[in-house]
Amino acid sequence: MLLARYQYEFLEAGCDEAGRGCLAGPVFAAAVILPEDFDHNLLNDSKQLPEDIRYELRVEIEQKAVAYAVAFVDNVEIDSINILNASFLAMHRAIDKLTSMPQFLIIDGNRFNKYKNIPHQCIVEGDAKYFSIAAASILAKTYRDDYMKQIATQHPEYNWHTNKGYPTIKHRETIIKIGYTPYHRLTFRVTDPQLELFAD
């Protein structure tokens, strides 16, 4: 059972990211402030939900949220500052865009770079525990998927419309065969899927 808030003293925003483990494309993040009494029987960690439900929930989240925002850090920036810092920066950019400034942040995961002077709490698997983080995970995931489908039309051979930039066998084989695009993260190691057959 997900909870509406971590605490009730301060205005709280939940934050999450999507696309951290991908070989191509940006990392997206969202920040969401929900009403204190928010409840929903379907809303959960985006990874636990089918795509059509995620998009239905996105509409509801955007209608019912007190405030929400989505931002990203592109692959060039990721290569420059590393994916962990890029994830934090994407969350900071999403918080920057909120129309109401939160007084407390709850972050999915176990690490975060402090945002200004706002206190925060990191929560492992927070997207399966708090509605606002789950909502942020839905927005980050669906907006990133939209972006990857859009750039997939420029490079259809990489199958981004289905793999969304994640390191599937076909995606890695295509990189090894024909190389990188301007959207690939060059600091991410691409292993040959065939070698895994011989791994211990």
Describe the structure.
With 200 residues, the protein is an alpha/beta fold. It has one domain (12-152): Ribonuclease H-like superfamily/Ribonuclease H (Nucleotidyltransferase, domain 5, 2-Layer Sandwich), CATH 3.30.420.10. The protein is 36% helix and 15% strand. The chain is built from 6 helices and 5 strands. A 5-stranded mixed β-sheet has the order 3-2-1-4-5, with helices on both faces. The longest helix is centred in the last third of the chain and has 22 residues, at 131-152. The radius of gyration is 17 Å and the shape is globular. It starts with 11 loop residues before the first strand and ends in a 22-residue tail after the last helix.
Give the SSE layout.
Blueprint: E1 12-18, E2 27-33, H1 51-64, E3 67-73, H2 75-81, H3 83-97, E4 104-108, E5 120-123, H4 131-152, H5 160-163, H6 169-178
Parallel strand pairs: 1-4, 4-5
Antiparallel strand pairs: 1-2, 2-3
Indicate the radius of gyration in whole angstroms.
17 Å
Helix content: 25-40%
Helical segment count:
6
Number of strands: 5
Q: What sequence of helices (H) and strands (E) makes up the elements? A: EEHEHHEEHHH
Q: If strands are numbered along the chain, what order do they take across the biggest sheet?
A: 3-2-1-4-5
Instruction: Name the CATH superfamily assignment.
Output: Ribonuclease H-like superfamily/Ribonuclease H
CATH-defined topology: Nucleotidyltransferase, domain 5
Percentage of residues in DSSP E strands: 15-25%
Shape: globular
Number of domains: 1
Largest sheet: 5 strands, mixed
Model regions low in confidence, pLDDT < 50 over at least 5 residues: none
